[in-house]
């Protein structure tokens, strides 16, 4: 029995995840779902946002469907998402940007870079170490090259003209691309942020370090209607977690206006990860048809509510 | 006598700077210009891209008009631009993004963050220290707040949900904004990269750390026609350098197709820095009129050459 852990989390996570789950269940009634609590809400109730019990539950699952968690800028609070990515060693953050004339996959290294957690305060300055390891670069490069091999080509986003740490990253990625026989070029991350917007057709798979991927994928969301549209996968050797790129959006939570597309598409990525390409394609196709029929949430200029959009997708998958 | 050091540098720097200089000279024939050599070309000839003599020349100037220098990704080569910014302590990198419905100024901290130069290689990983100092944050916050005071409001781009070093940056900026009486809000840099594109009208002055400002300004160039349009100022207590945001673009160099607008507008910023708001406005207006007349370089979809565009701007300032 394949077991899917479901973490709604906070804010709009609680609205979009139930829809994504219902859509997955509709195409794969055989999967076993179980709810796992984590996040700011849990923390306020219990003092622990993601304790050992939560982690054990997540580890026991074949895949995790994740919503969003609120991270207060309280220095004492550790981001749940970062904790999970780290403890499950989810090293590849895969973010497809798909839409009219756009078909890009950003592969973001997800465990190191500026997210090293190595930080300290000196007398009058705060320091964070950006870490680029050979092993970390190698495994993300392999992941990105394997993906690019089945697609078209690879772009390595970097800032090697300033950061020596990126010379290592570029060296490893280009070597891996050569070995894999993948056409590859490098691009400075600032220039890339602009060129991706101006000429999305020139990009296919983009691999980059952690925070560059974070910024780049949000900027690229501009091409396809914003964050409400972007799904993501966080992949490790043994675990995998699927989540919309958007956050918990407390400002719009509980109002039935959040766009559930990102969460539903994350569900499709989960299905694909389980090896069920047909089910994944059915979900993607259902979303496309609903959007194409003009049923859209407010962020896209439509009037459909979160639940109404979800119901429309459910009808489509039922039909498919 | 006010002395302007002119550094053409490499690539298209050699094409756009002479035009910017001619435009400045046309409105201010009293300024004294002197050429200073620096960059990759000089390095290839002399083994030194920016030696003590160059630095002394730059220090002796009242302002520097700078083109672009090529930075080969050779680990032994140090970026001339970074060297100059550091040695002249040009702490504020000011990048106006102006165009149809867009009027934003990105104020980028220009001396620390990931550009600290504190880097090392451990056994199997490369590390760079991101440094955020209280003093560095205070002076850029003061600069940004003074600017925002004469405009509308301030946004502090940061990643304090991940980087403790950004908690300090945010704390200092918001405190300074409160003291200056400037309306201020904070925004995570990933969300900001997207929202700036989707809702440019919501932004006025944006202050952020070094590499975030680097990426954000390139992405924002999308709003106004790309890098060919973006000027910048690098401001310190004692020195100031004005340069297009674009690089030396070796791929298009020497073909009379580079867009000189960024360089000319950098010249306008230089005039404004010298206290001559009228001359700066005259140059800006001339550029606007020429563009409005449909005279545009290839990057904007036009057919005008670099020199032809420059000649048109010169005619306009002559007329004004
Ligand atoms: C919430 C935050 C810690 C996270 C990140 O920076 O990775 C988010 O922006 C993302 O992209 O998943
Ligand atoms: C060339 C490079 C060192 C420079 C930077 O990163 O600051 C450039 O991208 C810029 O924005 O001026």
Structural description of this entry:
The first copy, chain A, is α/β, with parallel strands linked by helices and 320 residues long. Chain A has two domains: 1-90 and 236-320, Isopropylmalate Dehydrogenase, CATH 3.40.718; 92-226, Isopropylmalate Dehydrogenase. Helix content of chain A is 42%, strand content 22%. Chain A contains eleven helices and twelve strands. The first copy, chain A, has helices spanning 13-27, 40-46, 52-60, 80-87, 134-149, 164-180, 189-198, 210-220, 261-273, 277-292, 306-319, and strands at 3-9, 32-35, 63-68, 92-99, 102-109, 119-122, 125-133, 154-158, 184-188, 205-208, 231-235, 240-244. In chain A, the strands form two sheets. Chain A has a ten-stranded mixed beta sheet with strand order 2-1-3-12-11-4-5-10-8-9, with helices on both faces. In chain A, strand 4 and strand 5 (102-109) form a beta hairpin. In chain A, helix 7 (189-198) runs parallel beside helix 8. The relative contact order of chain A is 0.16. The model of chain A has no long low-confidence stretch (mean pLDDT 96). The interface between A and B is large, with 53 and 53 residues. Strand 7 (125-133) of chain A pairs antiparallel with strand 7 (125-133) of chain B. Bound molecules: 3-isopropylmalic acid (IPM) (2 copies).
